[in-house]
């Protein structure tokens, strides 16, 4: 295993607020924006044109692809993948103006966030409509629109997103055996389903 760099790397064209906290080994690419108070862990990647909102918290080894939009107050656990142009929203009732037609200010709405748990993946151009929780190691298909919580290890697709199967930690769809347990054809790891939820034998 190679050692992580002691410092982070920021492209000259990126816009990183002075109050943002960037972990060692993290790389921020061209035209990306990291706003006030955002916190990124170790060895993350923030792709070209991505936007990380103020106060967003991001764990270690997170990959945020080009032009993804992660609006506050989102939180991303360790090992999360956010695909190209994915969006994590933060306004349940979005309006530019109030009911009287006046331009809304920051005090005229209450932001709500998306929480993405450890190891989960959000496919390209997927949209997570806050407030929702994406469970551990879940996978959201490309172009899906998530409007309700996603269980751990769930594979969801469509508009609105619905579960069509389970995936393991390797991201490969699981297969159910004659004993009722689910297994990963790539790693051999086994999982058990109870009351519509999946768990592995590590917990």
- Write the H/E string, N to C: EEEEEEEEEEEEEEEEEEEEEEEEEE
The CATH class name of the largest domain reads Mainly Beta
Q: How many strand elements?
A: 26
List the uncertain runs: none
Tally of separate helices:
0
What best-fitting shape do the alpha-carbon axes yield? globular
CATH superfamily placement of the largest domain? Hexapeptide repeat proteins
| Approximate strand percentage | 25-35%
**Which structural class matches the secondary elements?**
mainly beta
Euclidean distance between termini CA atoms? 26 Å
CATH architecture of the largest domain: 3 Solenoid
Largest sheet: 9 strands, mixed
- Helix percentage: under 10%
**Mean pLDDT reading:** 95
Strand order of the largest sheet: 1-4-7-10-13-16-19-21-22
Q: What tags apply to this protein structure?
A:
203 residues, mainly beta, UDP N-Acetylglucosamine Acyltransferase, domain 1, 9-stranded mixed beta sheet, 7-stranded parallel beta sheet, 32% strand, globular
